[in-house]
Amino acid sequence: MKTIKYSRQREAIINFLQTRKDHPTAEVIYNNIREEYPNISMGTVYRNLNLLSETGQILRISLEDNRAHFDGFTHEHCHFFCRECKGVLDIEIGQKSMKDIKSIAQREFEGKIECQTSIFYGVCKTCLGKSNLQTSH
Predict the structure, then answer these.
(1) Are strands 78-82 and 118-122 parallel, antiparallel or unpaired?
(2) At 75, is the secondary structure helix, strand, or coil?
(3) In terms of DSSP bridges, do strands 88-91 and 78-82 run parallel, antiparallel, or are they unpaired?
(4) Residue 73 burial by Cβ neighbours in a 10 Å radius (0-12, 13-18, 19+)
(5) pTM assigned to the model
(6) Most exposed among 18, 43, 72, 112, judged by the fewest C-beta atoms under 10 Å?
(7) How far apart are alpha carbons 23 and 90 in whole angstroms?
(8) pLDDT on residue 137
(9) Residue 137 carries which DSSP code?
(10) Alpha carbons 90 and 61: distance in angstroms, whole number
(11) For the chain, how big is the Rg over CA atoms in Å?
């Protein structure tokens, strides 16, 4: 991991992301970080998010909503994208299952796989509940 100079604002972004499970966008992060650092600019947030994702301190998740979402937890895990509410959730399938998927892929691929990401798409439980309520009346 590349070493970068310490920054309070950067640390605040990492700390904020590690308290969240909803994988916020840069705009959500900016609006929350501004409460502690009112003079921070959107450009500073974007630069820090890019740097943190390039150095592996956070994950950048690109989805079909064309907006980057960010995750403060960098261990290998899966994500779920709700096509209704555009929410992003973690799916923990266990490290053994993640290693099994990686091993299967490595057997079929003639290069070196270093890491993996899996994104599942569909409708989350909350949105399914809303659509069931709306269709039952």
Answers:
(1) parallel
(2) coil
(3) antiparallel
(4) middle
(5) 0.82
(6) 112
(7) 9
(8) 43
(9) -
(10) 12
(11) 17
Strand partners, 82: 122
Tokens of 77: 């895990």
- Average per-residue pLDDT for the chain: 90
Tell me what percent of the chain is helix, strand and coil, each rounded to the nearest 5: 45, 15, 40
Q: Which two tokens stand for residue 94?
A: 């266990």
For the chain, what percent of residues have pLDDT higher than 70? Answer: 93
Question: What is the assigned CATH class of domain 1-74?
Answer: mainly alpha
Residue 43 DSSP SS3: helix
Give the Cα separation of 124 and 88 in Å (integer).
9
Summarised one tens digit per residue, pLDDT across range 74-123 is 988 899 999 999 999 999 888 888 889 889 999 999 999 988 888 999 99
AA letter at 73: F
Domains of the chain, residue spans:
1-74, 75-137
CATH of domain 75-137: 3.30.1490.190
